[in-house]
Amino acid sequence: MDFFSSKIIKWYFQHKRELPWRNTKDPYKIWLSEIILQQTQVKQGLPYYQKFIKTFPSVSELANANEEEVLKLWQGLGYYSRA
User: Fold this and answer.
1) How many Cα atoms occupy the beta-carbon half-sphere of 43 within 13 Å?
2) What is the mean pLDDT of the chain?
């Protein structure tokens, strides 16, 4: 490992935040965090992530959900104004 990489990794282990998507191997939960965090800061996105996972704990439950319910949970992330 080169000098720069080792410095970055050391910094990460000293300053990392405990985030729910870092403690899972569930692709759905990781995917959901990636979508939310594309244009939203972690501080604002975390409550949306938690509500989404509580309401739709699996991708199949999300796929079978009422579109209105999904959009209501998504409301406030700013995607409507960017579309």
Assistant:
1) 0
2) 92
| Domain boundaries, position 68 | 19-82
- CATH at 25: 1.10.340.30
**What is the tally of structural domains in the chain?**
1
Treating both helix axes as pointing N-terminal to C-terminal, what angle do 42-55 and 67-74 enclose, rounded to 10 degrees?
Answer: 150
| pLDDT at position 24 | 96
pTM: 0.81
Residue type, 73: L
**Which sequence positions are flagged as catalytic?**
34
- Domain-embedded: residue 5: no
The 3-state DSSP class for residue 43 equals helix
